[in-house]
Specification:
With 370 residues, the chain is of the alpha/beta class. The protein contains 12 helices and 14 strands. Bound molecules: S-adenosyl-L-homocysteine and iron/sulfur cluster.
Length: 370
């Protein structure tokens, strides 16, 4: 018996790859334009809806291709308007996507991996271990699902998703090709048309990935720094032992220098009580970043059950911010959004099988015997 043909999921193909797909079928490249609009702008997942293509082409497509988005298993809106989706990616694995509305802006926080292999000590995603990379269809599928939730709508100033940040679960630079394909679809005018300035990749510091990224795209960059020196950063972000701060900041400068326009890198700094929240840390940070055009985003640590760390006092975070501001930096304190539905930074976990067994090695504090 012949095995069924594996169908190509067109959801994850950016324009160039979709054109190549149609060429491989002996069809014209412009079909890609039509299909992109059907899938991403009109939310279609059924070829029969695509009435500007002949019935015979639609039938041919049905045989070899599909449009398969993630299955939504949870969709809840928080008191403050933050909306969270849990999406099942395959048997046993689910991930989380969050939409944060803020006036005219809607920022979608997208996941790139099921779990994360990097194990930052303050991050609940990391603590749960890692299962696998998401495909480009699974990454853009999160944007597709979120946009479909607001259909029908007319594109315009009220667009529900104006910004995308790759700040959900996972380290995007460790899933490079799929993340780049998905980001290209986010920026594609025939798909979501989001400006490159409003698509942000956040990394914990995979230095070779930053350089590689600069060769293929010009999205905005966020660096998860969290500490002003290597000694402290080694404790919080283990990948720092491989790529220390000096190398990370040098790669950041190279990336920013390649951008065709003037933009600032976002420095993310999760503020943890008693760890990295002291005035001397803020002063050290002002020195460290003095020749990097940046804005600094202070994220008060969001506690989760398996962590010993504590949320910082607001007064300590404000004092930290004042030191940065007085040194001439633009810095903001990120307000915690959606914590009543566990949608805040670092609270995204989904459900998945941990292939690293890290989650088994890790004993939650409240389960430790004294
Ligand atoms: N892996 C990438 C992107 C995902 S994490 C990265 O690390 O940049 C997105 C942001 O949430 C990072 O800046 C991360 O440090 C922050 N974060 C993780 N856990 C957190 C927590 N418990 N409280 C507050 N921020 C957290
Ligand atoms: Fe992974 Fe980012 Fe969490 Fe670190 S902070 S464990 S890199 S998701």
């Amino acid at each position: 018996m012949s095995s069924p043909v594996e169908k190509t999921n067109l959801l994850g193909l950016p324009k160039a790859r979709l054109e190549a797909f149609f060429e491989s079928l002996g069809e014209k490249r412009f079909r890609a334009t039509q299909v992109l609009q059907w899938i991403h702008q009109r939310g279609a997942d059924d070829f029969d809806l695509m009435t500007n293509m002949s019935k015979s082409l639609r039938d041919k497509l049905k045989e070899v291709a599909e449009i398969r988005g993630p299955e939504v298993i949870y969709d809840e809106t928080s008191k403050d308007g933050t909306r969270k989706w849990v999406m099942r990616m395959d048997q046993g694995n689910s991930i989380e996507t969050v939409l944060i509305p803020d006036g005219q802006r809607g920022t979608l926080c997208v996941s790139s991996q099921i779990g994360c292999s990097l194990d930052c000590t303050f991050c609940s995603t990391g603590k749960r271990g890692f299962n696998r990379n998401l495909t480009s269809a699974e990454i853009i599928g999160q944007v597709w699902v979120a946009r479909k939730a607001f259909m029908p709508f007319e594109p315009g100033p009220e667009r529900p998703i104006t910004n995308v940040v790759m700040m959900g679960m996972g380290e995007p630079l460790l899933n490079f090709d799929n993340v780049v394909d998905a980001m290209n679809l986010m920026m594609e005018d025939l798909a979501y048309g989001i400006s490159k300035r409003r698509v942000t990749l956040s990394t914990s510091g995979v230095v070779p990935g930053i350089d590689k990224l600069g060769e293929v795209t010009d999205v905005s960059l966020a660096i998860s720094l969290h500490a002003p020196n290597d000694e402290l950063r080694n404790q919080l972000v283990p990948i720092n032992k491989k790529y220390p701060i000096a190398e990370l900041l040098a790669a950041t400068k190279r990336y920013m220098a390649r951008l065709p326009d003037k933009r600032k890198v976002t420095i993310e700094y999760t503020v943890i009580e008693g760890m990295n929240d002291k005035p001397e840390h803020a002063r050290e940070l002002t020195q460290l970043l003095r020749d990097i055009p940046c804005k600094i985003n202070l994220i008060p640590f969001n506690p989760f059950p398996e962590s010993d760390f504590k949320r910082p006092k607001l007064s300590a975070t404000r004092r930290f911010q004042t030191i940065l501001n007085e040194a001439g930096y633009v810095s903001t304190i990120r307000t915690t959004r959606g914590d009543d539905i566990d949608a805040a930074c670092g609270q995204l976990v989904g459900q998945f099988e941990d292939r690293t067994r890290r989650s088994q090695r890790y004993i939650p504090v409240h389960q430790m015997t004294p």
